[in-house]
Design goal:
This protein is mainly α and about 140 residues long. It has one domain (about 10-135): Hemerythrin-like (Four Helix Bundle (Hemerythrin (Met), subunit A)). It is built from 5 helices and no strands. The chain has helices at about 20-40, 50-75, 80-95, 100-105, 105-135. Helix 2 (about 50-75) runs antiparallel to helix 3 (about 80-95). The longest helix is centred in the C-terminal third of the chain and has 30 residues, at about 105-135. It starts with 19 loop residues before the first helix and ends with a helix.
């Protein structure tokens, strides 16, 4: 069962997850996490996580490309460090051992918890960035 003390990413309100294009991608990522957690909560085989994980990776790459293009367009001064964070995040998700997930439900829950923590942290970073860029 999901054990976060903080509200999980999929329960964040629209105002908590950023401006339009980026907000939509954040929401889709949160919905995928909700689906992953649902698979685990139902006691289904963790193999059911794989389609969600594949789509999560695809949307994360799309999100990063969208965000990086916007940052370049706005000449965002912290582009390089933010891009490095994106690159590190992509590297981490590609290192996920899918066989271990299938064989070990605890590992699967750990992954969902880590992705949820990452998404909430990333949303906060994006909101901070948007506030500085757009003075919102």
């Amino acid at each position: 069962m999901h054990s976060h003390k903080l509200k999980p990413a999929w329960e964040l309100s629209s105002d908590e997850i950023g401006p339009d294009d980026i907000r939509n991608l954040h929401r889709q990522l949160a919905e995928l996490l909700e689906g992953m957690q649902g698979v685990l909560d139902e006691g289904a085989s963790p193999i059911g996580l794989i389609p969600f994980l594949d789509r999560y990776i695809e949307l994360t790459l799309q999100h990063f490309a969208t965000e990086e293009a916007l940052m370049l367009e706005l000449a965002f001064p912290e582009y390089d460090s933010h891009k490095q964070m994106h690159d590190w995040s992509v590297e981490q998700v590609y290192q996920v051992d899918r066989i271990a997930l299938i064989d070990n439900p605890d590992k699967a829950q750990e992954l969902v918890d880590q992705l949820d923590d990452w998404l909430r942290a990333h949303v906060c970073a994006d909101l901070d960035m948007a506030a500085r860029v757009f003075n919102t």
